[in-house]
Amino acid sequence: MRFKPGRKIFAFAALFAMCTTALSQTAAFDVSQMDTSVQACDNFYQYAVGNWLKKTEIPAAYPAWGGFMILGVHNRELSRDILEAARKSTAPKGSDQQLIGDYYAACMDESGI
Questions:
Q1: Is residue 34 domain-shared with residue 69, that is, in the same domain?
Q2: Same domain, 49 and 74
Q3: Burial grade of 86 (CB within 10 A; 0-12, 13-18, 19 or more)
Q4: 112 pLDDT band (50/70/90 cuts)?
């Protein structure tokens, strides 16, 4: 099997882009989500996430909504953006980006399927 460093570089670049984007948009712990009007010993759940519950509306397309759902949706959107960019790119024939773009385009071709 022939070693193709381009595949590893493209995979690393895609992973790096996802990680840096996710990390730059989120805080480790956001105290503004807490409802400090409630005593923690009386109702810890309301104390910990009360303001988030008041401000957040569950999207109609989802049965539940929370941090992991938000992360999952964000990751799917980011992955789709990477695949769309690969599909639209003019990468050299046989390169990883061209192969990924062609594969994605073939999967999205509903009339051809």
A1: no
A2: no
A3: buried
A4: confident
DSSP-derived secondary structure for 26-82: --S--GGGS-TTS-TTT-HHHHHHHHHHHH----TT-S---HHHHHHHHHHHHHHHH
Determine the longest span between alpha carbons in the chain, in angstroms.
Answer: 64
Residue 12 lies in a domain: no
Are residues 102 and 70 part of one domain?
Answer: yes
Name the residue among 58, 40, 59 with its Cα closest to residue 50.
Answer: 40
The answer to whether residue 69 sits within a structural domain is: yes
| φ and ψ at residue 81, rounded to 5 degrees | -60, -40
* 67-97 tens-digit pLDDT: 899 999 999 999 999 999 999 988 899 898 9
Are the C-beta atoms of 10 and 102 separated by less than 8 Å?
Answer: no
Task: Please check whether residues 54 and 65 belong to one and the same domain.
Answer: no
Same domain, 68 and 53: no
